[in-house]
Design a protein that fits this description.
Oligomer: single chain
Mean pLDDT: 87
Structural class: mainly alpha
Strand order of the largest sheet: 1-2
Radius of gyration: 23 Å
Shape: globular
Order of helices and strands: HHEEHHHHHHHHH
Number of domains: 2
CATH superfamily of the largest domain: MetI-like
CATH class of the largest domain: Mainly Alpha
Strand content: under 5%
Number of helices: 11
Distance between the termini: 7 Å
Length: about 300
């Protein structure tokens, strides 16, 4: 287990270096996007990106990532990059946790019910709805919900939820729902398929033959054997959510990492772009590491793998 964790930490370090370099290279290429780039010019951009990577790593070791200009009313103020990171990261992770919690509860619950009543109208409806949820573009879902809320307000004069802005109140409802859609569909589908397969295994038939109650058969035999697939789907759901985060934050005016990253790219703020992209990348990689450790705790066959 120790060697496994060390290998994963080494991979995280190498990927983090790649994130820093390619972010720096991307900003350099944006600055030269006015015309075509020859091979010699591209090599020059690579050298500048390597220089920016060294400078960023040096600044990171010193704990000083520099400052960025942010608007405060009619004036502009220099704000430390670390302050921007902490402020936006908390807002993004709060939104992300709410969305993943809803997706896990509703998705796993719906998938379990669909597997329990396999072949029923409920099961067919859940699987059909999951196809729609996975296929629906994030921006389209955001626009549809905003239009529905605006039309409702025009007809009734009653505002159900705000269509934009930040707040840990009703402001979080619409962005959380949009961010929940694809993970919920993925989790429901994987849970249904995995539990249906587990329910038809020989050890489950043996449990039924012993006269065990339904709660014990599903709780002790079906669910644990489908847990690894569900955890894998949870990791994929995190990838969906992180990929959709900038779009959701942009459409709903949520001042998190994703929306700030898009603005920083537009403003060519190298240190801020690298810091925010690195924060998202590290979040995904460390969550994946925790999930892989959970796999080994649930499946004894994986513990013997080096």
């Amino acid at each position: 287990m120790g060697r496994f964790v060390l290998r994963r930490l080494g991979a995280i370090l190498l990927i983090s270096l790649a994130i820093i370099f390619f972010c720096a290279l991307g900003i350099q290429m944006m600055r030269e996007s006015s015309g075509g780039v020859t091979l010699s010019q591209f090599l020059g951009l690579v050298r500048r990106a390597v220089r920016d990577t060294r400078v960023y790593l040096s600044s990171l070791l010193r704990g000083n990532l520099g400052y960025v200009w942010r608007a405060r009313g009619r004036s502009r103020t220099a704000v430390p990059v670390t302050t921007v990171l902490l402020d936006t990261y908390v807002k993004s992770m709060g939104l992300l946790l709410v969305a993943l919690f809803l997706a896990a509860v509703l998705g796993i619950g719906a998938g379990t019910l669909a597997a329990y009543w396999e072949g029923s109208i409920l099961s067919t409806g859940v699987l059909t709805a999951t196809l729609l949820g996975i296929s629906l573009p994030t921006f389209f879902a955001a626009v549809v919900l905003q239009v529905i809320e605006i039309m409702w307000y025009r007809r009734t004069g009653v505002r159900l939820v705000p269509v934009g802005g930040f707040g840990w109140d009703a402001h979080i409802v619409l962005p959380a729902l949009v961010l929940t859609a694809r993970p919920l569909a993925q989790l429901a589908r994987v849970t249904c398929v995995s539990m249906s397969e587990a329910a038809h295994q020989d050890y489950v038939r043996t449990a039924w033959a012993k006269g065990l109650p339904t709660r014990r058969v599903w709780g002790d035999h079906v669910l644990p054997n489908a847990a690894v697939s569900v955890l894998t789907a949870l990791g994929i759901s995190l990838r969906f959510s992180l990929g959709s985060l900038p779009v959701v934050e942009y459409f709903f005016g949520w001042p998190g990492v994703g929306a700030t990253l898009l603005t920083a790219i537009q403003m060519r703020q190298v240190n801020l772009v690298i810091t925010l992209a690195l924060a998202l990348g590290l979040t995904f990689m460390f969550v994946n590491l925790l999930l892989e450790l959970a796999y080994r705790a649930l499946d004894p066959r994986l513990r013997s793998e080096t």
